[in-house]
Amino acid sequence: MNKTKIKICGLSRPEDIEAANLLKPEYIGFVFYKKSKRYVDPDTASALRLILDPKILAVGVFVDTPAEEVSELLSRGIIDIAQLHGHEDEEYIASLRKLTDKPLIQAFQIRSEDPEEINEILAKAEKSTADYVLIDSGMGSGSTFNWDHLSGFKREYFLAGGLDTENVKDAIKRTSAFAVDISSNVETDGRKDAKKMKEFVAAVRAAQ
Fold first, then answer.
1. Distance from first CA to last CA of the chain, Å, rounded?
2. How far is CA 35 from the centre of its chain?
3. Is 162:126 a contact under the CB 8 Å cutoff?
4. In terms of residue numbers, what domain contains 16?
5. 50-62: string of b/e by CB count within 10 Å (b at 16+)?
6. Are 31 and 51 in contact (CB under 8 A)?
7. CATH of the domain at 159
């Protein structure tokens, strides 16, 4: 059985990075979407990256950001991977590929309960030319979707949306997720909580 990787998203303070360095998830995320309460500007992200364990990959989360801005953060080494969480299409990915050879994650959101609509979204995700796809229930929604829809999904994916310490074991058991991605459920009062981060990482590793 492959080890499920862990991504903790929305880190914004030195103490968040210090907690991550102790826990050693495979990925952490910096949110570069200005409307998010977890937004960090490039200078802040750069400073945080300097104290991040180099074995942990930094993912930048973008929403409809010009490709040049994304590639600049990748080329400066502030992030290792770009996660596209807006309306980016294949044309956008192709234009970004001309500017960088760094890995890309494309997010797909399942907000409907209509099986036909869900299958349509998943079919599109399977065809994405991004290196990885992320299947979410809606950006930062904090709610889950029916994971059974992923049973026939044919490529590696990050699973996000409503995961927590209580349900992540079931999520790993029921899906073949390459990685699990958490943000709001390891927070207290809108800030990352080192104790909750530790509990979540322990729950994922216990489920292996």
1. 8
2. 17
3. no
4. 5-183
5. eebeeebbbbbbb
6. no
7. 3.20.20.70
Rounded Cα distance, 136 and 131, in Å: 17
Count of domains forming the chain: 1
Residue 133 lies in a domain: yes
Question: Which pairing describes strands 104-109 and 132-136: parallel, antiparallel, or unpaired?
Answer: parallel
Whether residue 114 is contained in a domain is answered as yes
**Residue 84 dihedral angles phi and psi, to the nearest 5°:** -100, 110
Among the listed residues 82, 36, 40, 93, the one whose alpha carbon sits nearest the alpha carbon of residue 57: 82
Contact between 134 and 181 (Cβ < 8 Å): yes
Over residues 136-148, the pLDDT tens digits come to 986 555 567 888 8
Rounded Cα distance between 168 and 118, Å, is: 21
Whether 188 is covered by a domain: the verdict is no
Total-model pTM? 0.95
Write the DSSP symbol of residue 185.
G
What confidence tens digit (pLDDT) does each residue in 28-76 have?
999 999 999 999 999 999 999 999 999 999 999 999 999 999 999 999 9
Query: Which structure tokens are listed for 179?
Result: 């990685």
